[in-house]
């Protein structure tokens, strides 16, 4: 990778992405070969927002590489409650760990934190900004199921506040992918992501209805409309529940459509899809292990 | 007509004349330069005066102060057509157009209230300059040129 940190998918080249995905495939093929790869190293987990999958998969990935983790625990029981700045927190935890994983409710938190530390720092979600390690496991899942070139993908739901969407859309500009964005008008992509997509010459179309594009799709990436990101509860109520799919919805889809979701889901995907060949979201979540192992392996192996 | 202009915006002996400022931006120019009248320099401001090039324009004349290049560059964000005239003994000795810098710091507040640059952290706001606006280096929010003035943190 070109840099020591992973902050934004917009910093990732195709070469960077393929290096991580290829390493993840190697790990999937022979996990035992990586079991002691980073014995003696420690990963610091700094989660200022709730997380289950991301926190546990980074924890598991580090341990499967032979390393250990230190976790600052819930914000409520940390020094943050005493008024400590994020800049101070990461500078302190840097002394305890060889790499840091940071999740924070403010956009740009990882960019700022990286300015204060010398160890590799992974952005595990910064508010409604970016979530690039999720994108790497998303791309791994897409590559396994549909391939990354000549791809037609629909990305549906909360495109405004959905950080996994922002990262995925920008990363896909490295590939021959046609991107269809499906959302309510009020939840369209933010200006900065549109700017990057336009600047990269990406093939992009926007829709308000899934059925306008469903039959064309190889992949449908569904996201949750996140109540916690809405500044106004009324605005949330206007759009909640608008984009739900079930097996009846998918009758119009290609037989080999891959349905993904970064999870957790609420009611966007009916459980009656879970047992179909379309459902890939649990496989997607499981891919967090080899992909995050690959990412940590690459970041921790760089000469510093 | 020229005499009339001179009555409204008098000549200065030494200092800087910022001409061809987009109409309505003069007070923002003063804000960027940190001029609020408390430091004693004489300042003349002409607003919405006729202009062949712009139709209407603002003019700012600052007595006894020559602007630095970095100050001039930042003006380009809100007054891209401005010209900067350095005056000594009533003569214009230097005339320059503004040049857009690659980046600016501590000049604009990020309008994204959830941006880390608006939190109580030991950092300055920092923006990369685009062709038609600026972009926050932290949260990547884009502020269009016509929105920059409203987000100046020197106001």
From TrEMBL, chain A:
Q: Which reaction does it catalyse?
A: carbamoyl phosphate + L-aspartate = N-carbamoyl-L-aspartate + phosphate + H(+)
Q: In which pathway does it act?
A: Pyrimidine metabolism; UMP biosynthesis via de novo pathway; (S)-dihydroorotate from bicarbonate: step 2/3
**A GO BP term, please?**
'de novo' pyrimidine nucleobase biosynthetic process
The positions annotated for binding L-aspartate are 82, 163, 224
Aspartate/ornithine carbamoyltransferase Asp/Orn-binding domain location: 150-298
Q: Which HAMAP family match?
A: Asp_carb_tr (MF_00001)
Self-association or partners: how does it assemble? Heterooligomer of catalytic and regulatory chains.
What name does this protein carry? Aspartate carbamoyltransferase
Q: Which organism is it from?
A: Haloferax gibbonsii (strain ATCC 33959 / DSM 4427 / JCM 8863 / NBRC 102184 / NCIMB 2188 / Ma 2.38)
From TrEMBL, chain B:
Amino acids binding Zn(2+) = 110, 115, 136, 139
Question: Which Pfam families would you find in this protein's record?
Answer: PyrI (PF01948), PyrI_C (PF02748)
Q: Subunit structure of this entry?
A: Contains catalytic and regulatory chains.
The Aspartate carbamoyltransferase regulatory subunit C-terminal domain covers which part of the protein?
104-148
Q: Which cofactors is this protein said to need?
A: Zn(2+)
The family line of this record is: Belongs to the PyrI family.
**NCBIfam families the record matches:** ATCase_reg
Q: Which UniProt keywords apply?
A: Metal-binding, Pyrimidine biosynthesis, Transferase, Zinc
The job of this chain, per UniProt, is described as:
Involved in allosteric regulation of aspartate carbamoyltransferase.
Describe the location of the Aspartate carbamoyltransferase regulatory subunit N-terminal domain by residue ranges: 7-98
- Listed InterPro entries: Asp_carbamoyltransf_reg_N (IPR020545), Asp_carbamoylTrfase_reg (IPR002801), Asp_carbamoyltrfase_reg_C (IPR020542), Asp_carbatrfase_reg_C_sf (IPR036792), Asp_carbatrfase_reg_N_sf (IPR036793)
Q: Cofactor comment in the record?
A: Binds 1 zinc ion per subunit.
Q: What is the lineage of its organism?
A: Archaea, Methanobacteriati, Methanobacteriota, Stenosarchaea group, Halobacteria
Put simply, this protein is called Aspartate carbamoyltransferase regulatory chain
Q: Which SUPFAM superfamilies match?
A: Aspartate carbamoyltransferase, Regulatory-chain, C-terminal domain, Aspartate carbamoyltransferase, Regulatory-chain, N-terminal domain
The residues the entry assigns to the signal sequence are none
* One BP term from GO: 'de novo' pyrimidine nucleobase biosynthetic process
> Which is a Gene Ontology cellular component entry for this protein?
aspartate carbamoyltransferase complex
**What molecular function does GO assign, one term?**
metal ion binding
């Amino acid at each position: 990778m070109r840099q020591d940190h992973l902050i934004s998918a917009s910093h990732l080249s195709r070469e960077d992405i393929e290096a991580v995905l290829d390493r993840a495939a190697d790990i999937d093929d022979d996990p035992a070969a990586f079991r002691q790869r980073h014995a003696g190293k420690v990963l610091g987990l700094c989660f200022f927002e709730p997380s289950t999958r991301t926190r546990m998969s980074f924890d598991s990935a580090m341990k499967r590489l032979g390393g250990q983790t230190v976790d600052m625990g819930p914000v409520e029981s940390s020094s943050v409650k005493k008024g400590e700045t994020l800049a101070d927190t990461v500078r302190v935890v840097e002394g305890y760990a060889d790499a840091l994983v940071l999740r924070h409710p403010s956009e740009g938190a990882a960019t700022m934190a990286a300015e204060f530390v010398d160890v590799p720092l992974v952005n595990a979600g910064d508010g409604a900004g970016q979530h690039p390690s999720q994108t790497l496991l998303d791309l791994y899942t897409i590559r396994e199921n549909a391939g990354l070139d000549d791809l037609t993908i629909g990305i549906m739901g909360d495109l405004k506040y959905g950080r996994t969407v922002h990262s995925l859309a920008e990363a896909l500009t490295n590939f021959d992918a046609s991107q269809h964005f499906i959302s309510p008008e009020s939840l369209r992509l933010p200006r900065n992501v549109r700017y990057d997509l336009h600047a990269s010459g990406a093939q992009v179309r926007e829709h308000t209805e899934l059925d306008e594009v469903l039959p064309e799709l190889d992949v449908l990436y569904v996201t949750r409309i996140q109540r916690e990101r809405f500044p106004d509860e009324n605005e949330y109520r206007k759009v909640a529940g608008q984009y739900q799919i079930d097996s009846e919805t998918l009758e119009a889809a290609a037989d080999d459509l891959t349905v993904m979701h970064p999870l957790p889901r609420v009611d966007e995907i009916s459980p009656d899809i879970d047992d179909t060949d379309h459902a890939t979201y649990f496989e997607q979540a499981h891919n967090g292990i080899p992909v995050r192992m690959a990412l940590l392996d690459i970041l921790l192996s760089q000469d510093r | 007509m020229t005499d009339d202009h001179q009555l409204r915006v008098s000549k200065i002996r030494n200092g800087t004349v910022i001409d061809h400022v987009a109409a309505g931006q003069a007070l923002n120019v003063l804000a960027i330069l940190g001029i609020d009248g408390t430091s004693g320099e004489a300042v003349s401001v002409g607003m919405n005066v006729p202009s062949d090039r712009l139709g209407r324009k603002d003019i700012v004349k600052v007595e006894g102060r020559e602007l630095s290049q970095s100050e001039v560059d930042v003006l380009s964000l809100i007054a891209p057509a401005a010209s900067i005239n350095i005056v000594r003994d009533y003569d214009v000795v230097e005339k320059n157009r503004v040049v857009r810098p690659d980046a600016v710091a501590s000049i604009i507040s990020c309008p994204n209230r959830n941006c880390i640059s608006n939190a109580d952290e030991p950092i300055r706001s920092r923006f990369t300059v685009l062709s038609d606006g600026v972009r926050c280096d932290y949260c990547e929010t884009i502020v269009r040129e016509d929105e920059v003035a409203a987000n100046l943190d020197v106001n």
